[in-house]
Design a protein that fits this description.
With 327 residues, this protein is α/β, with parallel strands linked by helices. The chain is built from ten helices and 15 strands. It comes from Desertihabitans brevis.
């Protein structure tokens, strides 16, 4: 008899109500894969893009979700013991294979990172993709070093808040933007030393605080603010293009010698599970458990509230990471 599970299925692009909760067969697991009982999953902007039909990745019908957190049920290849706590992320999840918006998910073993923690699943569910992206943006993207200055463009997003937390841990001076003055306290609580109200033209404001320009910047808003972010950055500084909160992905009529300030470096970051070392995940979870680091969770939703969760994500109604628990 086929074992069933509850899953959130997207038959094609649409609004939040296109996400349908259904009973579907539990996925089979083959050697090289890991079957995970999902306890919680975080919401990500790329899932919003996928639901809206933006970009060229993925196919329908599909269970969305580029990450999930839970417990190993089976790993036929022996990569992980049953009962191991894991985060699963990327590797085609929610795009070319069914993803984490379900009670169970079967993923490549290479997409799984193990950890041990007594934190609640609602907390753990916020971490994998958010930490992978923030850690990679700081290390691979910006190569941030203690004492550096860091500008986060799009600071009240989940990645922006995670960058602030990691930046503070690494001994950086953190500047971060928000369009909403009422959210300044959220940024300060995450470790931001200088909150900048973003009116679309902040380079001069940044240089009032750091006259030579910041040594590194992470661009999360996207192409509409990229040019201004580059101009807030010092000669030999680095801007890492990581996010597209604006949903604008390309620069029209890009002319590099005019667009790029002299000596300012532009790079990008998008990572996989292999870019989140298990020791980095474990260290961060331990720091959260001890109170040495804060976790920017905006709101936790029940599985049945997925439409409301996506509505809030689309409207930017909540600052911080949105998490859904499965039970």
């Amino acid at each position: 008899m086929t074992e069933m599970m509850r899953a959130i299925v997207l038959d094609g692009p649409g609004g939040p109500d296109a996400l349908q909760i259904r009973d579907v067969p539990r996925p089979p697991v083959e050697p090289g894969q890991v079957l995970v009982r999902v306890e919680a999953f975080g919401l990500n902007r790329s899932e919003l893009h996928f639901r809206q039909g933006l970009g060229s990745f993925g196919s329908f019908p599909r269970v969305p979700g580029i990450e999930a957190t839970g417990v190993v049920v089976d790993a036929p290849g022996g990569e992980f013991a049953p009962g191991t706590q894991v985060g699963a992320l990327m590797g085609g999840m929610g795009r070319t294979i069914d993803g984490g918006y379900a009670e169970y998910v079967a993923v490549p073993a290479t997409s799984v990172v193990a950890f041990t923690s007594d934190l609640a699943w609602a907390v753990l569910g916020a971490v994998p993709e958010m930490l992978q992206t923030a850690h990679g943006s700081l290390t691979t993207g910006v190569d941030a070093q203690p004492g550096d200055t860091l500008l986060i463009r799009g600071g009240t997003s989940s990645i922006g808040l995670a960058l602030a937390v990691l930046g503070k841990q690494r001994g950086l001076t953190v500047l971060s933007t928000t369009r909403n003055p009422g959210r300044a306290a959220v940024l300060e609580a995450a470790g931001v030393e200088h909150v900048i109200i973003d009116d679309g033209d902040i380079a001069a404001k940044v240089r009032q605080i750091v006259p030579g320009g910041v040594s590194g910047a992470v661009e999360l808003v996207g192409t509409p603010t990229l040019r201004d972010t580059l101009r807030a950055t010092a000669v030999h500084g680095t801007v890492c293009f990581t996010g597209m909160l604006s949903n604008q992905w390309t620069v029209p009529d890009f002319y590099p010698i005019d667009f790029l300030p002299n000596g300012v470096r532009l790079t990008a970051y998008s990572g996989e599970a292999s870019d989140l070392p298990a020791e980095v995940l474990q260290h961060f979870l331990d720091a959260v458990a001890s109170g040495a680091a804060t976790l920017p969770i905006g709101r936790v939703y029940a599985f049945d509230d997925i439409v409301q969760a996506h509505t809030d994500m689309e409207n930017g109604a909540v600052a911080g990471k949105l998490v859904v628990t499965t039970r």
